[in-house]
Amino acid sequence: MTSIQEKEATKEAFRKYLESSGVLDALTKVLVALYEQNDKPFSAVEFVQQKLGGPTVSEYEKLKAEMSDLQTKYNQLSKAHQDACKELIELRNSQPVKVCKETIDDETSKLDFDDETSKSYAS
């Protein structure tokens, strides 16, 4: 195949893809609706976006601002969480570990000593 034939084959494959996935029908319906509007909208792009289910430009800007605010809040909370974890680690490392007598007794009862070793520890 020559490069021209390859390009044409690629275009045809893409066209078939758009047709089989319903994109051509959806765009055709939106463009017909735009054509049939008596009062043409100020922004044809916004009209198409709205008809295809997307947000308007103003809605998009609102969502973008909200996302930015939420990202800032997330970063602050993440930093606070990291700081709290560091503080917890420091507190754990700075205080001596207290071991209950019951814990020690439980652990020694689990050890498997022979009789002579047990007697030497008992005395």
Characterise the protein shown here.
With 123 residues, this protein is mainly α. The protein has one domain. Helix content is 78%, strand content 0%. The chain has helices spanning 3-20, 23-36, 44-51, 57-94, 101-110, 115-122. The chain is elongated. It starts with a helix and ends with a helix.
What's the story with the biggest beta sheet? none
End-to-end separation in angstroms reads 96 Å
Helix content: over 70%
Q: Give the H and E element order.
A: HHHHHH
Kindly name the structural category: mainly alpha
List the SSEs and their pairings.
Layout (H helix, E strand, L loop, with lengths): L2 H18 L2 H14 L7 H8 L5 H38 L6 H10 L4 H8 L1
Protein name: c-Myc-binding protein homolog
Family: Belongs to the AMY1 family.
GO molecular function, one term: transcription coactivator activity
Relevant terms:
123 residues, mainly alpha, 6 helices, 0% strand, elongated
